[in-house]
# Entry
Amino acid sequence: MVTTSPQPSPPQAAEREQEPRVAINVTASRRQSHCGFLLVSRHSSLVPRRSRAFTLIELLVVMSIIALLLAIAVPRYFNSMDRAKEAVLKEDLVQMRNAIDKFHGDRGRYPDALEDLVTRKYLRRIPPDPITDSVETWLTVPPQEAGKGAIADVKSGAPGTALNGSPYGEW
# Structure
């Protein structure tokens, strides 16, 4: 048989309404109560205590899954950063070479320094080499004809090789 407690006072009734309820099937001797279920507080002793927290094994499984995902994602992230720097380097070289060619086409000679491209408004500024993060590492190539200026081409002065295996200085 299922016994019911006396009606709670109004403050106790408000506390019980705030607690979550769980339906549990209750049998009394051979017969069930008239509705078959009894509402019990979640913090009652009828609910097993270990169902409220994660076990150590569950935490280890989650941590190993996170570690596996990081092991896959981190190398791709750094590889994409290198590809992005190389793409910026290629675009900077194209822009600077176009500015040098326009300077030569307008003036009939090559610039004496990269700063001439900025002062004559062919470039807004000299872009930094994205690999070295410096404007001082650009390598200049003089023209084949003497007396026509000092810079016919520009290359990167960054040490190392690109992802495709070619040295940065050959670009």
Q: What stands out?
A: The two ends are 89 Å apart (CA to CA).
